[in-house]
Amino acid sequence: MMAISIRENCWVGGQWVGRPELPVINPATGEEIAKVPDVGSKGATEAVASGANALEGWRSTTASVRSSILRGWFDLIGRHRDELARLLTTEQGKPLAEARVEIDYAASFVELYAEEAKRIYGEIIPSPRADCRIMVTRHPVGVVAAITPWNFPAAMVTRKVAPALAAGCTVVLKPAPDTPLTALALAELADEAGLPPGVLNVVTGNAVAIGEVLTSDPLVRLLTFTGSTAVGKQLMRQCAGTVKKVGLELGGNAPFIVFDDADLDAAAVGLMASKFRNSGQTCISANRIFVHAAVHDAFMGKLIELVNALCVGNGLDPVVDQGPLINNGAVEKVERHVADALRQGGVLVTGGKRHKLGGNFFEPTIIAAAHDKMLLAGEETFGPVAAIFKFDNEKVVCDMANKTDSGLAAYIYTSDLGRIARLADALEFGMVGVNTGAISTAVAPFGGVKESGIGREGSRHGIEEFTEIKYLNICISPGI
Prior knowledge:
This protein is an alpha/beta fold. 39% of the residues lie in helices and 21% in strands. The protein has a seven-stranded mixed sheet with strand order 14-15-16-13-12-17-18, with helices on both faces. The chain has a six-stranded mixed sheet with strand order 9-8-7-10-11-19, with helices on both faces. Strands 5-6-20 form a three-stranded antiparallel sheet, with no helix packed on it.
């Protein structure tokens, strides 16, 4: 079994290409790990052409062959789990234990779509005419452009690439500039698993130049993107010129609602999983925490104890459970949100400033007396800040939760089955966790409503995004 190496080239047409130029920085130490190429528009165009050239051969491959190759990729990811996790932590910063969980999560998408490759079914529709038969078949959409974020540099790659490959599409992948190394390592393993040249291409470099090619080249038929709502809107506009399909998984502003009949110990633990995982840098992170007035003080006591127990440091240290933010810009945004909240009457309970370690580290923070005029109520903080809002009425808190343009995830803690049923209908979010702060799994559809995106990833629905439906009306002679 080969060892995972740090690749400083792009992967195009089954070859390592490009000259290392752009530094990749360890967010915990500030040290340069490696350099990767800046392929520009020319390199992006070549990658698209490579995917187009490989398309016919790949989509004509049987589902069982595609499934077998994906299964081999899954096995290799599992064998290299620890190496991949260490590489991921080095370039992204999350604790090594979280990185291992992410590698497992990434692998689960490859395993799922190795199976779903053989389940892309059509249908027979009863025809209104006796001499006709109506068939509906699904076909790969074509060349797919995938743009992935830095916060989950393994899982967001496989959640897009695996279903695209399973459906018979070829892919041009552009990973985030902060975290390209994990994506390149995964491409190397896909090659070892037997993926034909050109079926998966990975390019790095200037986001604007590459994005313009991926959104305007008519050979690309679908663009799938995970990232900010603002960038998603821009990419959607750019795709309009060639009327591409788009899959967008955009920002969130998740409410986390703790009712007076909730199990407070479970709610506090669930909030820690939702809020402080990956230092709060997740799109489904609890952003607005609503706690019923009757249990507010009791819940705060439990939460303070858990937050103060967090160990902050370099994610490669096994005792650390809170790593750095991705870069200084992320830290500055958190500082801006905290300062605004305190200026508007928020109460600092714990934390609130850059960590004594310096660099990209920020103290795990709790702010009480939050309200909807604060920046942290209307924007994703994307950092380790728990903003606590107080409420005393179910209808009011539901309206407060829905008061956002985003609609990705929501969480509720209650033991009232009637309330669960009411809020399941009333909350305007694509995903709702009930008495849990962990909702991500490969087998469930991931995605939001309103400005949180278009389409779904994961589950059997995820592979459908990469197919087109063809309708056949077959008329037959009466015969005997």
